[in-house]
Amino acid sequence: MLRWKDILYYAKYSNPEPLHKVEKTEEEWRQVLTPAQYAVLREKGTEPPYRNAYCRTYEPGTYTCAACGQVLFNSTEKYHAISGWPSFTQPASRGAIRYTFDDSHHMQRIEALCNVCDSHLGHVFNDGPQPGGLRYCINSASLIRLDADLELP
Ligand SMILES: [Zn+2]
């Protein structure tokens, strides 16, 4: 289980190694992403609170990166955070996400990026539920949910 001290360590020193990398030019990303996805994933945009696809959905399934397909989160770690965006308390795996300090908008936050394709997902905070205490606040446009029944038993 990841805790806040792990996130700080990753952001400050070194992120976990991804299983593989996906690299495209910005022009190639524009061709495969919708304008809304591109604005969030590649330009670090933020979609409006509550008016986004996965804010209030809790169907079982797997949330993958909308850009490269990497599995990022499981629905079992999704919870209601009253933030207006889908919120998770742990990633699907330790190496799925990379972290970096983000000082934009006069705030000190930690940005969460896909570790495979370096696309922007959202931010991670230390006010999530115990025992891990993490809150991943993620844009719906960064995610594609796959139904649980696609998984093998
Ligand atoms: Zn990705």
TrEMBL record:
GO terms for cellular component: cytoplasm. This is peptide-methionine (R)-S-oxide reductase. NCBIfam families: peptide-methionine (R)-S-oxide reductase MsrB. Its EC number is 1.8.4.12. The keyword Metal-binding applies. Coiled coil: none annotated. Belongs to the MsrB Met sulfoxide reductase family. Keywords: Metal-binding, Oxidoreductase, Zinc. GO terms for molecular function: metal ion binding; peptide-methionine (R)-S-oxide reductase activity. Pfam families: SelR. InterPro entries: Met_Sox_Rdtase_MsrB, Met_Sox_Rdtase_MsrB_dom, Mss4-like_sf. Transmembrane segments: none annotated. The keyword Cytoplasm does not apply. One of its GO terms (biological process) is protein repair. Residues 26-148 form the MsrB domain. Its cofactor is Zn(2+). It is an enzyme of class 1 (oxidoreductase). It catalyses: L-methionyl-[protein] + [thioredoxin]-disulfide + H2O = L-methionyl-(R)-S-oxide-[protein] + [thioredoxin]-dithiol.
